[in-house]
Amino acid sequence: MAIKIPRGTQDILPDASPTWQWITEKARKICQLYRYEEIKTPMFESTDLFHRGVGETTDIVQKEMYTFKDRGDRSLTLRPEGTAPVVRSYVENKMHGWANQPVKLYYIGEMFRYERPQAGRTRQLTQFGVEAIGSDDPSLDAEVISLAMAFYKSFGLNKLKLVINSLGDLESRKAHREALIRHFEPSIHEFCSDCQNRLQKNPLRILDCKVDSEHPLMATAPSILDFLNETSKQHFEHVKEALDAMGIPYEVDATLVRGLDYYNHTTFEIMGADFGAITTLCGGGRYGGLVSELGGPEVSGIGFALSYERLLLALNAEQVQPEIENPLDCFIVAIGEAAEKKATELLYLLRQQGITADKDYMKRKTKGQFKQADRFGATTVAVLGDEELEKAIINVKNMETGEQQEVAINEFPQYVQKLVENRRDSHE
RNA sequence: GCGGCUGUGGCGAAGUGGUUAACGCACCGGAUUGUGGUUCCGGCAUUCGUGGGUUCGAGACCCAUCAGCCGCCCCA
Questions:
Q1: Number of domains in chain A
Q2: Looking at the domain assignment, is residue A257 inside a domain?
Q3: Which one of A86, A327, A374, A395 has the largest count of C-beta atoms within 10 Å of its C-beta?
Q4: Which Pfam families did the record assign (predicted)?
């Protein structure tokens, strides 16, 4: 049996790859505007990085990692997310000592999670993410959120919803955590087994549970927003004011709890609509203890990650098409062996001049070659056969008007060049 | 990891146990010995995701397995 693509992965075929290039271009462009610089980290890291950086209690670490041993008996893991590796690099390269602070980075790359695939969820996913590390200024939170929103807007997407929340600082989180345990503990046996486990490990995530969302204790659960201390409150207020000033609408959702352990203060999610159960396009937030946890100084960062796969769902739902096209300037129809050889030479000349050019490689008849040229959307076709070779000319046909012109073969490249330039001028 | 649905040529899709597996699109060839987008004619699945079983006979029924989609969980 033929070998098939691994589960949860996909080939990006030529008809889809322009869209992928388009997304990448938009991402780079927006990062350039906001002055974030690209960082590339390895596809695999020491397994410990994710245990320490992402959190032992998270689903990612507990059941979704592609972990393997290399020949030197090192435990390595294909990266399931981008923040921990970037922070590892921040610490390893002592970026906290760089002149420009905060350090503003972005990455584009593949992530790997062992999950059950469905629409918008694959085992290899492509993420664009941003990390601004070294400042706890709340206006930086707003900048990162606005970058994400501007990115989506640049595609013309409109059905977006920004949801924000604050988890507060360590002190606030601790107080809230205790209140949650007090709230749920007496009746915890009425909750699902996941929630029973969460009670001591991470009671915050009980709020996130879909199974027990109708339980009366959910509605009356203590809200993190009531436990924010003065510092945390001010931070959150500042973020909201900055968003208001930029005219970015948002909703505050006190139950928005991000899945990874390292978040504090601001968390946010951008949701799309109209494409099935999965609506989260982008998730992010501020992380406090992560840098020091990985051996760096006590600084915090803020970032987000979003996937191409889900952006694609949103683009489909709103019927957005990429702006990329690749027109064929000239197709050479060669009739006979001698002409075929000459065509190869002429193609090379055209391409050296920046003219997109192609020919037949399937030994098609003349008619078939024209059909191919038409399918490619060639704007001109050059016909070369024995008759032309004898007279040292080539017949250049305009495929829109059907007009055909004899051109001396040694003037052919310049002639096509002129046609292409005229066409470009008239289109501008 | 759990539950539901699905799997026929490059694509879409008929076929609900009986001989040579409809049809549409795409593709290739011819009508037009060297000129496209229209038309007409012809060609194009030793085989129905894979493996096994039931049967005189299986694309259809059964079992297993793989994959996809949807839902749950969770997340990007």
A1: 2
A2: yes
A3: A86
A4: HGTP_anticodon (PF03129), tRNA-synt_His (PF13393)
Q: What token pair was written down for A262?
A: 């390292």
In which residue ranges of chain A is pLDDT below 50? none
Residue A95 lies in a domain: yes
Residues A149, A145: Cα–Cα separation, whole Å:
6
> What are the helix (H) ranges across A104-189?
138-153, 170-184
- DSSP-assigned beta bridge partners for residue A334: A384
Annotated binding residue at A262? yes
Å from A265 (CA) to B73 (C1')? 26
**Contact flag, residue A310 CB and nucleic strand B, below 7 A:** yes
| Residue A320 tokens, joined | 């957005």
Distance A122 CA to B12 C1' (A): 26
Q: Is the CB of A381 under 7 A from strand B?
A: yes
Query: Chain A, 285-304: which CBs lie within 7 Å of strand B?
Result: none
The rounded distance, in Å, linking the Cα atoms of A404 and A170 is 77
> CA A376, A417, A352: angle at the middle one, nearest 5?
80
pLDDT, one tens digit per residue, over A224-254 is 899 999 999 999 999 999 999 999 999 998 8
3-state secondary structure of A45: strand
SS3 of A249-307: the string is CCEECCCCCCCCCCEEEEEEEEECCCCCCCCEEEEEEEECCHHHHCCCCCCCEEEEEEE
CA A393 to chain centre: 51
Q: Which two tokens stand for residue A204?
A: 């915050």
Task: Find the domain containing A335 and state its range.
Answer: 330-423
Task: Tell me the nt nearest to A309, Cα to C1'.
Answer: B76
| Inside any domain, residue A268 | yes
Residue A312: count of CB within 10 angstroms of its CB: 19
Distance, in Å, from the CA atom of A147 to the CA atom of A99, rounded to the nearest integer, reads 23
pLDDT tens digits, one per residue of A111-134: 999 988 888 889 999 999 999 999
pLDDT at residue A170, as a whole number: 84
The ipTM is 0.81
Please report, rounded to a whole number, the percentage of residues in chain A having pLDDT higher than 70: 96
Q: What is the mean pLDDT of chain A?
A: 90
Distance of alpha carbon A313 from alpha carbon A299, whole angstroms: 36
Phi, psi of A135 (to 5 degrees): -145, 140
